[in-house]
Give the backbone structure.
Amino acid sequence: IRKSYHGFHPAPWYLCCRSLSGAGTLRWNDYDRPKEFNFASDVLDYWTQMEQEGKRGPNPALWWVNNQGDEVKWSFREMTDLSRRAANVFTQTCGLQQGDRLALILPRVPEWWLVVIGCIRAGIIFMPGTTQMKAKDILYRLQVSKAQGIMTTDTLAPEVDSLVSECPALKTKLLVSDHSRHGWLDFRSLIKSASPDHTCIKSKTLDPMAIFFTSGTTGFPKMAKHSHGLALRSFLPSCRKCLQLKTSDVLWSISDPGWILAVLGCLFEPWTSGSTIFIHHLPQFDPKVIQETLFKYPITQCLAAPAVYRMILQQIPTSLRFPALEHCITGGEALLPEEQEEWRRRTGVLLYEVYGQSETGISCGTLRGMKIKPGSMGISIPPFDIQIIDEKGNILPLNTEGNIGIRIKPTKPIGLFMCYEDNPVKTAEVECGDFYNTGDRATMDEEGYIWFLGRNDDIINSSGYRIGPAEVENALAEHPAVAESAVVSSPDPIRKEVVKAFIVLTPEFLSHDQDQLTQELQQHVKSVTAPYKYPRKVEFVPELPKTITGKIKRSELRKKEFGQL
Ligand code: BCO
């Protein structure tokens, strides 16, 4: 067994074992903080070694399929080889250095895994983003992060070219495509010719590793910066109890590669345990394809937002008894007890809920095998200590509504974000006494189960997407019909919440057909920003409710939507 840092031995019996009862005998625990950690060298290369020594079964490390019948199966050895080549492409061909930033805007293609691991090997900070983004979203991200590199596909390359002159820090554009494009480096051919010899950096656990953009109530998305500790957290005994993966497991996480849920569920969690990552390209979400895939492949665990399970239940009337499926996990938005029960009834498999944010990763959950309390998100997962707190950071009594707080003093736990990059004001705003204030409201019961109640601000959670109203209002403001708008959450039977825009029209548009105008405004938002944010409901109003100082009272509009006024 290779000794990787400060006496830490990744014991194979533990890594392969389903029962974690022996974890306490290890020399490290949930609260240890190794000085150095690197997911590529400490985890991926470890499994490559196990594979070479015949100590891991024949399942691939990555198993990728699409609707055209294409299939990619890479072993850990191949992943090590290819990701070392990727690291060499970044450092040697592109001239990127440790600490540089790479915007990573790819759909579910196998290269995504090479890029992320290649970045970790070379110490390049990767910044995942959804391919739903439009030029403006990308421009903002490149400018605010001062990214030196971007990697994307044919679809978004023209958008990037249209804004590149406004991004002076950007020196490298990498394309994942079967075609070449002027001014872009062809990643697929560079990988083939790159050397497979690369020495992984010795990253400190608290060195920066990734940046996730996260929406807030006001302004543009903030940059939640994470250290290598995010990947280390997947290693910790308590976190391993969540999925209890083993080498024979095949985990399918159905999250867009732009979100932290994908980085955890499609990468750190499964490979920490030497399991197989299963990926379907899934360019468009289709519950039927998900059902067929779960029948066709030996997928043992599935992780997806509640909306995915909900849409399958609502749209597929036929059998959901999947041959290999043993365990299902969900997170990203609230799960209703009725949905959890219906999933169990129709599939025979229990659906376990986890909770987290881009700032926190998975912070609490109902661990596999633990008693499920329908409607609860489970218990705090060490080293996170979750408490329900008031506005001053005081811990509230049990069963009392308050904010979900994660203790950061005296020690910030491994896996919690480092800060909002270049934004000390926002970073300070979320510190509340000894806690990080998530802004989510909940209660905690006598057994430590946490019961989600909602947000304490105007953020909309629509089918697992966190949407800041200002981003949608800014997009609407660009349309000549919009004099003013207020965007709030509104109830919906499928997505639970959807974006609703209250719009005051400019005089020239007052006589226009309102249905047509609604469609035009929806299309407009889809064309200027990531389409998942578009207002699925629109209401034209003569004026918006405002405070005496002229601030729009979004909460009043929201309460009306939910029948609370
Ligand atoms: O519904 P519409 O058809 O009117 O519009 C949809 C799309 O058709 C459309 N669209 C997508 N790409 C487009 C486009 N339009 C124009 N150009 C494009 N390039 O825009 C709308 C997008 O909405 P959607 O993404 O909600 O669509 P869909 O297909 O209904 O997907 C359903 C879900 C459930 C698969 C999707 O909503 C989803 O993936 N939700 C989960 C999000 C998630 O993973 N959240 C986790 C975040 S991380 C976290 O919470 C921390 C946990 C530790």
In short: The two ends are 63 Å apart (CA to CA). Residues 1-27 have pLDDT under 50 and may be disordered.
